[in-house]
Design a protein that fits this description.
about 200 residues, mainly alpha, two-stranded antiparallel ribbon, binds iron/sulfur cluster
């Protein structure tokens, strides 16, 4: 017989997807994706669930939870990456471009991502300008992959402060061309002094 914890809340698969989609909207992901897709970086490329002129026909928990380098960086810089990851860790059955998530399951933690759409907006403009300024095809996509790799590595060396400092420095250098974003980020941290960036904090 399954055991139930008083802190756990019943949640449907559809509700979790809705919570994720709303949170992504709060990050301004639609604006960032627009720039990324225009520059050939769509993460849905080649997926059998992608319909021309319609978009995704099979919204699932896996793709909703998954973050590319740009979105991961946005949540890392605003100190919300742990919030995101902790929420999605509770959702069972995530796979590649599909899920086996039960229709109803239990979660302990809700998801609070708000007040950062302006930052996503700023990042989208920065990316647009960077893509226009660098004629090499795939410039921003390469940048996305490098940032992604560094943030993942950062989370893998939580017990190695020296390595962490080095990787944090890499992320700082890679994100330094995001001028509008960095300005918004400074304001965000001034208004939210208790928030630190990163996943592990
Ligand atoms: S890779 Fe990231 S920015 Fe590009 S389309 Fe996918 S989610 Fe959007
Ligand atoms: S299933 Fe995932 S990868 Fe495929 S179209 Fe939908 S969101 Fe994109």
């Amino acid at each position: 017989m399954p055991s139930f914890n008083a802190n756990e809340k019943k949640m449907s698969r559809q509700t979790v997807i809705k919570i994720g989609v709303n949170a992504l909207y709060e990050t301004g992901s639609d604006l960032i994706c627009k720039v990324c897709i225009t520059n050939g970086g769509s993460c849905c490329n080649g997926c059998r669930h992608l319909a021309n002129g319609i978009g995704c026909t099979q919204r699932n928990t896996s793709c909703t939870a998954w973050l590319c380098g740009f979105l991961k960086y946005l949540l890392y810089a605003t100190g919300l990456l742990k919030e995101w990851n902790d929420f999605w860790r509770q959702v069972p059955g995530q796979d590649f471009r599909e899920d086996f998530t039960p229709e109803v399951f239990f979660v302990k933690k809700s998801l609070h991502i708000e007040g950062i759409r302006k930052l996503g907006q700023a990042l989208a403009i920065d990316l647009e300008e960077l893509a226009a300024a660098h004629i090499a095809i795939g410039f921003i996509i390469t940048l996305r992959e490098k940032i992604d790799k560094n943030i993942d590595r950062l989370n893998q060396c939580k017990n190695d402060p020296k390595k962490q400092i080095k990787i944090e420095r890499n992320i700082k250098v890679l994100s330094s061309p995001f001028l509008r974003f960095q300005k918004e980020l400074r304001d965000y941290h001034l208004n939210n002094p208790s928030i630190e960036k990163g996943e592990s904090k």
